[in-house]
Each structure stands twice: as C-alpha cells, then as structure tokens.
C-alpha cells in the first residue's frame, strides 16, 4: 500500500485501444460518413513547371452528380502555412491553395465535389487545362547553377529556400592542423516516403451557424484548426477539428497539404459534407518525403582516435515548396555539432527548391541524413586507425555536460552506456572475430556493424514548446484525461493514461483518454519530435498531481489527519502509518457532498528544456555476392530512453523504426525522372518496403541509463531514434562483410554488385 | 470602450442554435443512427397490479430479425434510482429494471431488440405473459383506507411513499383565535402530463473496451451516467452520456424510466447499438405526470385583511412508484409557509402509492398545486372581507427579510413590485369596474382575476447544489464554454454564452458552447429547478472572470502597466485612461509566445444559497354560459426575475408557461379508470392541449425589481414561475365572471355548466 514502487508505469499494460482496433470497431477518419456526404477529388498537373493559361471547368460542372468545381480563380489567394508556427523558422509559407502556376508534376490545379468518387474522377478528366510550359529544374545541381530558372522568385536568392545555416564552434583549421588522419567524403541519400497505412483523409462539414467541423488524420489538430481559420477567415471557435484513430503519420502528417483547404471550401460551397481521401498514389505524389541530400564531410582525428575537427557542407532538396525545409536544415546542420564530440566544427546547411514533389517532416527529421554520413566516416576512421569501430565511437561519444545541438548540456552518459551494453550483449568482439565467409554457402559473406545516434525529445530549438493536459476526476475516483496529443498508432494515449493512473493512485483501467477534439482539449503543439510522452506526459503528471493534492487534502480532512500523513493508492486515501484506516475517493469526493468540481478538474502546462535519447545499433548482415542482395540477419538495438513507461510499446517503436530504416537503407526510394520531374514509382508495387518476412531477428535492449529530470519520472522520447542508427550500422556491416564502402542509400543489389566489381578491379589493378 | 454598460447581457442576441434548428441541421438524439443499429421496444402490462407467474419469450426469439429479448430473469435485480442524489430526500429508490410484479397498467415487463421497429413490435406480441392478478388500488382514498392492499410493502407504512412531512411555525390555534374570518376548503387537481415535442429516446453503444456510449434526451446527463454505471457495474469513466439538442423536458426528463437500462442491456447482449424511442402513447403511459392531489386548507384573517393562521393537509398521488414524490411533497408542503406571509402555519404533506402511472417532476414542482389552493382562498377572503383581491394579496405578499420556504430570507420586495406594476399596467381597477356582461353577446360573461406565485431558482433544499463551468480561451481570443447543463430548448446555452462574452469582453459570436458530453464537461446536477442561468450562469461568470484576470495580467505586462489600469473589451486589452493604447488578446496570449494553456482554461464551481423569483398574473376570461367554454382573452404576467439576460428568451419562457398553465387549468387531464387503472386518453387526440390558436393576447412585463446577489449580475430563474400563477388567476377570473368558485383543475365546460346550474338552484332556493 505504499508508493515506493511503480504500480503501472513500467508495466506493459494492455493498450487502451487494443480491443477496438482488433475488432475493427475503432473508427478512423475514413470510417465517418455524415448524411449527404459528397466526395472530393483533386486534378493534378502532368507537367513539372508551367503557367496555367486557361482552365475551363464547364464540362465537368455539366456532368450529372458534380456539385462543385474549384480552380485557382475560385479560392482565396492566400499563402497558407504548413506549420503551427508561422513566425518560427521551422516551416515556410510559400504555397497557395491553388495557384495559376504549377511547380511540380502532381500539384493540384482544380478540385471537384460529386455524389460519388467515380463521378468525381470522371469530372477531373473533363476539366480542360492549357499550360504554358516553363523550364523544369529537377535536381539540386540544376537548381544551384547560376542563372537557373527560378521556381519561386522570392526568398534569399536563387532557388534557396532560406539563407544558408552556418554553425561554427572552436577553430576548424587549428583542429585539422592537429589531426594525424583526415578523412573526406561525399554522401547522398534518396527520397524515402513515410508510407503510413492510412492515406491522408479529411471530411469537412459546415453547420447552420457557419461553424466548420473538420475530421482529419493529422498529427497536429490545432495547427489544422489555425490554418483553416486563417484561410477561411473564421475565429478559432468556429473551427472544430476532430481526430480519431490514426493509421500512422511518421511526421509527414504535421503538415498541411492542399486537400484540407479544398475540402473545406467545397463543403462550404455545396453546403454538404465533403470527404477527400488520398489514393495511395497521391500519398507519394502529393505527400511528403524525407529530404534527398548531398553531404560533404571532412573530419580530422588524432592517432589515439580523438576527433579534432569536422567540416560539413549539406544540401537538402526541398522539392517544389519549402514545407519543413527550414527546420530540417537547422536540425540537420546543428546535429553535426554532436553525437561524436568535437570541439572544432564548421557546418553549412542549405535547402534548395526543385520542380519535384515536396520533401517535409519524416521520422528522424534532418538527422537521418547527417548521422548516416558521420557514423560511416567514423567507421572508416577506425579502419584507417586500426582500432575497433565500437571502441572509437565509445571514445568519442558525447557525455554528460557536453553541449547538445540545442545548446543545452547533455544529461548523463546515455550514449556510452548504450555502446558498452551493446558490445557485451551482442558479443561484438567474438562475432567480429569470426570468418566473414558463410559456413555452408560460398556466395554469402557475413559482416557486423555498429551505428549510433542521438535525438531530442522535443522540437526545433526555435519553437517554444508547451505540453498541456487536463485531468478530470469523476466522483467515483475514475478519471478522464483530456489531451490534444494525437494517437498516431504508437500507444501514446496508453502511456499518458499510465502516467495519470500512477500519479493518482488509481487503476490503469480507471483512466480514459479524450483526445483529438479541439473544442474540448487544451491547446497542443502536435504529436511530433518524439515528445508526446516527454512533454505531454509531464503535463499530464502535473495535472494529475494537482488533482491528487486536492483529493489528499479532502481525504485528510475527512480522516482528521494532516495531509503529510495520508497517501492515495487504488482510489483510497489512508493514513500512511495505518493503512487500514482510510476512505475511498468516492466517499471523500462525491459531488453530492459538495466538493466543487473546480478542484477535480485541473489543467497543467509544461514548458520543457530539451532532452536527448541515445541508441547504438549492432547489426549482422549477409551479403549475397552473386545477386548483390543484402539480408539483415540480426539487430541488437540498445536505447537509452530514461524511465520506460510501457516496455512493449517502446519495443514496438524500436522494431518499427528499424523496419523503416532497413527500408530506406536498402530498398526504398521514390524516384523522380530528372529530365521532366515525373514520378516513376508512386505506388507500393514499384516502391519496395520491407515486409514482415524481410525483418531480421531483433533483440531490443532498453536502458534507463540517463533519465531526464524534465520527463515524467525521467522518461524521454523514443519515437524517432530507432530509424536513425540502423542505416549507418547496415552500411558499416556491409563494408565489414565485403570490404566495400557505400556513401549513399538505398544500397541496392545493383550497387553491391557494382561495388564488388569495382573492388575486384582495384584489387586486380593493384596486383 | 468602458465597461459601464452591458454590451451583451440584457440584449436579445440571435440564439446560437437558431440556424441549425430552423434549417433542420441540428441533431436530436433520435437523428443519430450508428451503423448496425437495432431497435428496442418494451412490452407493457395490461393489468394494473399482478404477479407474473410465467413469461415465455421463446416464440419472440424465434422470429427472424429478433436479436434479443430480456425479461425480469435476464436483468440485474437492483433498485435503480431516479435522482442524482440517492441519499437525498428528493427521490425514491423503489423500482427494479424489470420485476416479477406489475404495479401499473403500462409497466414494462419485457424488452426486445430487433432489426426493425416493425419486427420488434411483432415480437412483443409473441411474448407470452401469465399474470396472477392482485387487487388494484387506483385512487388516494382506496390507497389510504386501513387494510388497503400494499403496493410495495416497504416504507413508512401502508401505501405512504415517505413519512408525512410536517412543518409548523408559530401557534396556529392562537392565530385562528385572533381571526375575524376563517375560511376552509378542499382543493383537487388532475393529472397533466408534460407533453414535450420529443418523446423519450436513447441509443446505447458499447465499444470493444467495454465502454458504453449513451445518447439520450435527458435534463441530467450525469444522473444518467451515475445510474447506468451503478446498475451495469461500471466505473464512471466507462460510461459516456451524450445529449445533443432536446425537444423539451419540463422536469420529467430529470428522471430515469425503464428504457435506458433496457437499451444499454440489449446493446450489451447483442454487441450492436440499440435505439429505444417512446411512442407518444408511451410518453403518457410510461412517462411522468404532475402529481394529482387533494388539499384541505383553512386560513384565518383579521378584519383588516391580515393573514393570521394557515392549516393545510396535502395528499399527493404518486402512482406506482415514488419517483420525485419525496421532493414534490417537501417542496409542495414547505411552499405553503410563504407567498402570502403568515406567522402561524401548520402544514402536513404526504404522498401515497396507487396502481396508476407514475407522477414525477414537472415544471412548477409541488407548488402548482399548493399555490392554486392558497391563491384561490385568498380571493375568497377578499370577497368575504369586501376588499379588492389584488390589494389583499399585495398587503400579505412576502417581503424583503421574510423567511422563504427554504429557510433563507427573501431578498427584496419582488412580489409586491409585481402586484403593483400589474395593477397599473392592467388597469385593474378600471377593468373590474366594467360590467361582466359582454357588450354584444348575452351568453358571454367577462371576468378579471389575479394569481400570484414565487419559486426558487434552485432545487429542493436538502440538495447541495453545485454549478460548474469551464471556460477555455483560444489563442485568438475566441472562447469555448464547457457545461453540463442541458439545453432543453429554452436557449439556456445562449444565455450562458452571453454571460461569458460579457465577462470576457468579447463578442457574443466569439463564444461557443460545448455541452452534453459527460466525458469532457464538468459535473452538472442537471437542468431543472429553474436554476441553469442562476447556478451555472454564476459558475460561467466566475470561470470567465478567472480567464479574464489572466488576460488582463498578461496584457498589463505587455503594456507595461498595472493590472488596475487596464481593461478588456472586444478582445482588446487597453489602458483605461488611454484606450488607444492597447493590444489584442491574440497579441497578448498567443500560445506560440509561450502563454501556458493552464491560464486560459479555468473551471469554476458555485454553490449557491437560494433565490426566489416572483410573479403576478392578471387575466381576463370570457365564459360562455351556454356552452361552458372558458376563453382566456388576455394575460398580463408581471415577473421579477432579477437581471434579465435575454429578454426574448425570458418572454418565451413566460408565454410557454402560460400556455401549459392554461392547459392544466382548463383542458389537460390524463385520465385513469379508477376501477382498473387503465389509461383512457393516452394520446394527443383525446388529451387536449391548448394550441397556438387557443392562446390569449399576452402582454409580458419583466421587472428587475429584486436582483439576487447570488445570480450573475443579479439574475434569477424564470423557467417554472409562469406555469404557477396562471391557474388560480384563471379560476379567480371565472369566479369574477360568473360568481362560481372552482376548487379544482381542469375546470371543464361541463364543470362550468354544472356550477352555473348549482348556483342558479341555490339562488332560486334563496328566493
């Protein structure tokens, strides 16, 4: 009956939403179908860069069943924002709802609402568009040549999205002067897309009072509310955004696309509810990818392995609009100040527009690219210095007190702990001592690699984050938590309910979570940046603590005891010294006895500093030298995430991240034809994601090595971390297996065969 | 720009829900139809008192389309309560969900869920029930004779619902000894039913997590939540009650019938949503009526008109179950301590069970009956004393400092003010000086009467009321009010929004109201007892004031001024001395600038004393001496309701109350055959309500004579008052017209003709 030990936090309780999800009873946005529903569709351009000379919707409007058509002439000409923070540097504000110019192949040029999806599709074909083609710029080289066609013609100059980001610490020249070994290389990465299960979908419905109700699958309901209100000229109390279950988002759903505004406008014009649902193809064409990149990296090391200088130039390809390029560029550049500590750094990051689909936010925001390069080059350094790469990484790993990318000091030795634990648990030295040849199949070579990462459990440093939660206790001691944090499918609401139940001394089942209704939940910044458990969890704990204090105060009164002498467990207030003597919360708090509700409903706000989580991934690969196929056989991810709230959910995050990371490292790349900007594989037939059968044996290790005092009981984030370290770990393991270095992803079978051939030629040439 | 004057309070703003109601877009419970919906129906007994010997549902269950049948053997055997306060004295707890005994003709004995209403109805006929008849007790005389059959066999004895209520003040014998005139009479009233537009309806839906979502048309969502949770053995966080628009309730919908539990149980068994909707007939048979009553009253007066003694014995007919009989008996008895001040009172009230449909709460709770009797006898006293009845009532009317029925002192001279204002505005003396004969139609006689009333803007004194409200300001200064107060159709939410807008200095349209969702709104006692504006309005004002204080504090900081020196109007904080210098709430409060949500969301609780509203109704009637028809020609109701929030809504309440009051006074009576308990007119063909064409010219006068410091800006209730005074005013006017006293309602044409005949005989006999 004491609170010495955790009762709920740290337990893998049955997820609150598990039954409704497995039975199919849980509703997703697409499951809603208000009476009189119309279906909206978007006509998309089939040219990458052009001016619209003429657009004629008359034939579409004449089609029976078509209720409205919108072109650029029919919609407010406002630049909508793609971020909750228009004044912050995380997002640009450069896109119109519909424009008379087209900047990428697939951009929406008109929208239709009709009584069926089929009729809407048919109507799209009847809209006549006459384009005046403009020269298209389809890669970062073409975008950066002097005199390149300008895609926007505003901004800092050329096709730059924002002024270049420059970070400098120490004296890089001096550092390189002290170096015994200097490595230099160029790294590149493709265009992986977050292929969430649930394509983007929304429903707009206006009521008679000119209030818009808007169901949508978003990570940030308040961002959507704000953007819709602004574009539609409504006060915020006239826009209600509702989010129910979500089938993933992975960061991309913290953006605004075109369809939300078009859906709302079509509904307004027709006075009927309108649903817009992306096809899978549209999630590629009109969704958001990770930023393709090119990164030049030069690092200097002393003989003893100490890293003394780092010089980096990074270019992100933003695509036709800026979206999260400012944030990604800032985070991706600043992240190179850290991971492996280095006193002398000079970093330059930029993002450029091209006439290609839009890159945006995606799990591992900015740092997947940067740490892929840095970690591979560390591996090369170990090879050149003749030391074990795990030991070299351990030696240089950031430690307690080092300055993090955010400018805050790192708390604890999380990264060294992960590396050390992995070396032991993976039996790293013994594994690496084995022959690379497969025991039975001569075509197969085995290799072992390590990759490391760190990531902040909160957003871009320029944003003032604010976690909010309202806790409402019922008269029987059961509780409702109201939160704006979206549930992307990761079990975030379960973790929040655990935190509230723990703090209030009630059973997990006694806590219900109300979320995703902007009319009733407190303002929320959005579920991204690995921060829901850290940020909203802390706010939930604080709100619960306020209610707990009320209950204890009231219980103590009723027991004629001092507040310091009573405790609350399982809905019962009792004397700590004599647990038999107590009363239930119901007895203490029933409203018929006059306890004011104002003491049972508490909102708390939390404005955190920044915490960092860490991971080291240990990987075994098997490379088929005949086919070039790389098979990831075994992964041992070691994560420090502070206090673990729900072990199985955390493990699920890690396994999922590894699966996605294997994807972008080996197979996933959304390919754009660089001659004309056309999509070449916008769909899951041609875009190859790893399936469950492609998954390695994963042996997750979660440490509570460096709890952060800012998180609930020291908890930190885990959402993004697992996708970051797996990439360099695989690349390093491939090198370990076949002796070929790859500086790019995805590393395809073709690349492997080419690499083997080149190596053979070099070896032969050397003979 | 100053706050000297009201901007919104006191204005008849356009009701927030008016557009969705007139366009039909607003949803009522019956409009909801979740996928897979089943329809529930109840089989009702056709005998008033019996034991069920055998009940066989097998044939019903075999009917294709029938999904479940419940009889008393299938449901939890618990006494459910019909009140938010099981331990208070307002309601009994004497009814099972289904019992093996039947206590009135129409009681539910089984329930069916089927895929259509038609199949469910057909199934009802296939359920075989074998009864063992018991002697039925169908009126209060039969119920009170010694040795009467016992309907419940528990309680204080005989067929008493509760121990008799006894109130005594002063010395009644001494009072009568000082009286120059003593009057004695017996008064009776029928069984009017609150024929709300929207019959009782609910939908139950269980999700995979064993959580019940329950849409219902109720005045008290939290009462429904509590009762369902208790009966179903669920914690309160597992029951979500949702109330949308309502088509009236008039008090009756602050009760639980049988169908709510049966609906939830059928849905649980079938794992599908189930809707149960009363037919109009069921709203009579299984709904709630006003209590039929018999009241013996003896009062003594001095020659100068001073009331010196009152002795009263009151019997309410409860019907088969107690429902609100305890509360009605307490309120109805205690109310006789007041209205016309009297130092010496002895009051006895009781309620008795009979085998008839259940009487419950209905607008004017308890006092319609009591004040009907008292006010008519005052009129008789005036006649006997030879004084003007209005002057006699004015002389004896309760005044500031007199003790109210609740035990609190009356605040202000509200009743005298109403009487005085009415005497002037109605031109009372001049009207009464006219001949009673109609100028052109000799069959018609005209008469003028006055009736008075008072009523508390809060519930039964034993209940600790608590008004709660949460106010949530958005970052643009617009606001959401979260309240548990139901919107019966009277515009209560509009009044609450006005109060919040006034207090926060924003436009009325900037305030949205979220209501009727027990998961998100603060606990609410229910919308009854004329207390929503008074009780919840005060809480809303307090919550808004808390948010206002935050905004002013923040605004003052930003303006570098002291909080005392700034004001807030129309969403702008400015220097009181220099209104030009200011900033908008948006500028002061935007969350991206870091204002914590905890300061923008505030809950307030208000626990009031009791306030009283007052009214005097002045009436002109025309009595057709050939047909007995009474036509109410003109009503001038004068009401003191303190500060008026929304004049047109208050006027609407008054006009509606008068219409209902005319109904029960002249035409409405739900008749039960006293030989067998059968309903004789359960439907709107045979139960005659006044239509709009039957309405008199109404000239409403609203005074702000006696504001109550406990209400928002002094506002008091108006919901029940208008139905109370109209009855005695009409009876007194009929007497004024034809010289016949009626001591009962309804006063039918037959009664009038009988009365005229009896008077003629008496007159003739006297000749």
From TrEMBL, chains A, B:
InterPro entries the UniProt entry points to: Ald_Oxase/Xan_DH_a/b, Ald_Oxase/Xan_DH_a/b_sf, Ald_Oxase/xanthine_DH-like, AldOxase/xan_DH_MoCoBD1, AldOxase/xan_DH_MoCoBD2, AldOxase/xan_DH_Mopterin-bd_sf
Gene3D superfamilies on file: Aldehyde oxidase/xanthine dehydrogenase, a/b hammerhead, Aldehyde oxidase/xanthine dehydrogenase, molybdopterin binding domain
One MF term in the entry's GO annotations: xanthine dehydrogenase activity
The EC number(s) this enzyme carries: 1.17.1.4
Alphabetical keyword list: Oxidoreductase
Domain Aldehyde oxidase/xanthine dehydrogenase a/b hammerhead: 23-135
Protein name as annotated: Xanthine dehydrogenase molybdenum-binding subunit
Source species of the chain: Amaricoccus macauensis
């Amino acid at each position: 009956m004491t609170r010495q030990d955790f009762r709920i936090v740290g337990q893998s309780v049955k997820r609150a939403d598990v039954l409704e999800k497995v039975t199919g009873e849980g509703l997703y946005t697409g499951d809603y179908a208000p009476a009189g529903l119309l279906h909206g569709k978007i006509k998309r351009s089939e040219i990458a860069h052009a001016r619209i000379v003429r657009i004629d919707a008359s034939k579409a409007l004449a089609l029976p069943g078509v209720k409205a058509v919108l072109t650029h002439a029919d919609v407010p000409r406002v630049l909508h924002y793609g971020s909750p923070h228009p004044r912050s540097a995380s997002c640009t504000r450069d896109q119109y709802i519909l424009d008379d110019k087209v900047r990428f192949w697939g951009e929406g040029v008109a929208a239709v609402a009709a009584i069926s999806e089929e009729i809407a599709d048919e109507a799209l074909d009847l809209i006549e568009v006459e384009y005046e083609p403009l020269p298209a710029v389809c890669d970062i080289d073409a975008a950066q040549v002097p005199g390149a066609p300008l895609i926007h013609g505003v901004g800092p100059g050329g096709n730059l999205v924002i002024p270049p980001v420059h970070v400098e610490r120490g004296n890089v020249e001096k550092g390189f002067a002290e170096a015994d070994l200097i490595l230099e290389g160029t790294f590149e990465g493709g265009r992986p897309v977050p292929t969430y299960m649930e394509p983007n979908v929304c429903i707009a419905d206006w009521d008679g009072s000119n209030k818009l109700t808007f169901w949508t699958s978003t990570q940030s309901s308040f961002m959507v509310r704000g953007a819709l209100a602004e574009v539609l000229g409504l006060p915020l109390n006239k826009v209600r955004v509702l989010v129910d279950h979500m089938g993933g988002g992975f960061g991309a759903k913290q953006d605004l696309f075109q369809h939300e505004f078009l859906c709302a406008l079509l509904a307004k014009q027709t006075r009927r509810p309108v649903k817009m649902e992306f096809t899978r193809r549209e999630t590629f064409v009109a969704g958001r990818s990770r930023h393709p990149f090119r990164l030049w990296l030069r690092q200097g090391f002393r003989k003893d392995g100490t890293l003394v200088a780092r010089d980096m130039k990074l270019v992100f390809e933003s695509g036709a609009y800026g979206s999260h390029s400012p944030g990604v560029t800032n985070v991706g550049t600043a992240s190179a100040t850290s991971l492996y500590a280095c006193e002398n750094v000079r970093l330059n990051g930029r993002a450029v527009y091209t006439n290609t689909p839009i890159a945006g936010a995606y799990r591992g925001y900015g740092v997947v690219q940067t740490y892929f390069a840095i970690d591979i080059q560390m591996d090369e350094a170990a090879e050149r210095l003749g030391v074990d790469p795990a030991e070299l990484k351990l030696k240089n790993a950031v430690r307690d007190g080092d300055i993090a990318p955010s400018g805050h000091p790192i708390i604890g030795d999380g990264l060294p702990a992960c590396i050390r634990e992995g070396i032991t648990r993976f039996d790293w030295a013994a594994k690496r001592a084995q022959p690379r040849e497969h025991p039975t199949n001569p075509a197969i070579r085995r290799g072992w690699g390590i990759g490391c990462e760190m990531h902040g459990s909160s957003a871009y440093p320029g944003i003032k984050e604010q976690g909010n939660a309202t806790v409402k206790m019922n008269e029987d001691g059961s509780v409702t938590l109201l939160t704006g944090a979206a549930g992307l499918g990761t079990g975030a609401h379960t973790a929040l309910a655990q935190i509230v139940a723990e703090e209030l001394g009630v059973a997990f089942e006694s806590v219900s979570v109300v979320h995703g209704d902007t009319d009733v939940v407190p303002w929320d910044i959005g579920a991204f940046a690995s921060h829901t458990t850290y940020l909203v969890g802390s706010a939930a704990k604080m709100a619960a603590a306020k209610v707990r204090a009320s209950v204890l105060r009231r219980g103590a009164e009723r027991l004629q005891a001092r507040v310091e002498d009573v405790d609350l467990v399982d809905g019962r207030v009792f004397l700590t010294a004599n647990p038999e003597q107590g009363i239930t919360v119901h007895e203490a708090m029933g409203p018929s006895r006059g306890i004011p509700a104002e003491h049972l409903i508490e909102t708390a706000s939390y404005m955190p500093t920044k915490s960092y989580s860490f991971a080291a991934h240990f990987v075994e690969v098997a490379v088929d030298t005949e086919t070039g196929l790389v098979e990831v056989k075994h992964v041992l991810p070691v994560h420090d995430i502070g206090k673990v709230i729900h072990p199985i959910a955390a493990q699920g995050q890690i396994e999922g991240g590894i699966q996605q990371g294997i994807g972008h490292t080996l197979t996933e790349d959304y390919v754009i034809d660089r001659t004309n900007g056309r999509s070449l594989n916008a769909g899951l037939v041609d875009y190859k994601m790893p399936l469950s059968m492609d998954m390695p044996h994963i042996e997750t290790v979660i440490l509570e090595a460096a709890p952060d005092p800012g998180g609930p009981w020291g908890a930190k984030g885990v959402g993004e971390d697992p996708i970051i370290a797996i990439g360099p770990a695989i690349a390093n393991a491939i090198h370990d297996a076949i002796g070929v270095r790859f500086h790019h992803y995805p590393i395809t079978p073709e690349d492997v065969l080419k690499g083997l051939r080149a190596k053979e030629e070099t070896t032969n040439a050397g003979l």
